[in-house]
Write a structure and sequence with these properties.
0% strand, globular, 310 residues
């Protein structure tokens, strides 16, 4: 670190030294502190100033802004700038869709999701395909549920989601594994108790019993997932409210909610830099303006890969 810092003092455009500084500030086995995350992000910016097409610097900077600092609007701007540099970058589109979904801006996410399949875009890796599939299912479900489900807008203090949070704030999140066990275990026990007599009736009946058990297990997983999603909706709402606080730099969560069991649990599992930044926002004690809305870049100004080639 000392050698890299000396190198950038001698040569402010020393690419490798700036990248080394950014890398050394991110621990391998731990999440970075607020100071280290901010310094690593600044080093990423220096790298990009020197080499605008440095893909790893773009990825690290975007992850720090969103995952460590919770600055979703800045992260959206970051990936927007990345797409200006390389319109074919599918990773930038996926990150943009993910951020828009986290903010509850699903219609914008649907529009941007289509860009992944435009001619000239980079081929998706296996991991990108898996993540894109999850995002696609999420925004598709939103389109199906439109008109039946109201999605939480934390900046609207009259949103029904706040009442859901307050009704559930004295309990921790529901555990999907426990729900699955209580739901499936009794049924499986009855099937297992019946299996000895079925096994004596031939392999066909035994095979049928195995199929029934598989159906029960798979069905139980789907049902328990739906139940846990329903029970944990207040927790997801509160997570979004916390993200809006770190994005806007202003308070929006009531003190009674902030002192609740649900908030304390969710706060404890967020990264150290996120917690430190959120604490400083709460200490500043500045309330979110009623006119505040998420700041979104103008995606329409982006050129398609096909037009770029032309």
């Amino acid at each position: 670190m000392e050698l890299a810092q000396k190198a950038v003092k001698v040569d402010p455009k020393h690419l490798d030294a700036w990248w080394m500084i950014s890398t050394l500030l991110i621990p391998k086995k731990e999440r970075p502190t607020l100071t280290n995350a901010s310094r690593s992000l600044n080093a990423c910016k220096k790298v990009i100033e020197i080499q605008p097409d440095h893909e790893h610097a773009w990825v690290r900077g975007g992850r720090i802004l969103a995952d460590e600092l919770g600055m979703y609007d800045k992260a959206l701007e970051w990936w927007h700038e990345r797409r200006k540099v390389d319109p074919t970058d599918t990773q930038a589109v996926i990150e943009t869709v993910s951020l828009l979904s986290d903010l509850g801006l699903y219609h914008q996410a649907i529009d941007e999701l289509q860009r992944v399949w435009e001619p000239g875009m980079q081929q998706l890796s296996f991991e990108q395909e898996k993540r894109l599939s999850r995002l696609h299912n999420l925004v598709k479900q939103v389109a199906i549920d439109e008109g039946r489900t109201q999605y939480f807008r934390p900046w609207n203090l009259r949103d029904p989601g706040w009442k859901m949070i307050k009704d559930r704030m004295h309990r921790g999140p529901a555990n999907q594994t426990l729900i699955y066990l209580f739901l499936v275990a009794p049924v499986l026990l009855l099937v297992v108790m019946a299996s000895p007599s079925t096994a004596n009736q031939g392999l066909g009946n035994l095979f049928l019993m195995v199929i029934i058990m598989i159906i029960i297990v798979m069905g139980g997983m789907r049902i328990s997932r739906r139940i846990s999603m329903m029970l944990n909706r207040p927790a997801f709402n509160l997570i979004r409210a916390m993200d809006i606080e770190t994005t806007s730099g202003r308070k929006i969560i009531d003190e009674d909610v902030r002192n609740s069991k649900l908030y304390n649990y969710l706060f404890s599992i967020r990264p150290p830099a996120f917690r430190q930044r959120l604490k400083s926002i709460v200490a500043a004690n500045e309330d979110l303006s009623k006119q505040w809305r998420p700041s979104i870049p103008d995606f329409s100004e982006l050129t398609s890969p096909k037009s770029e080639e032309e």
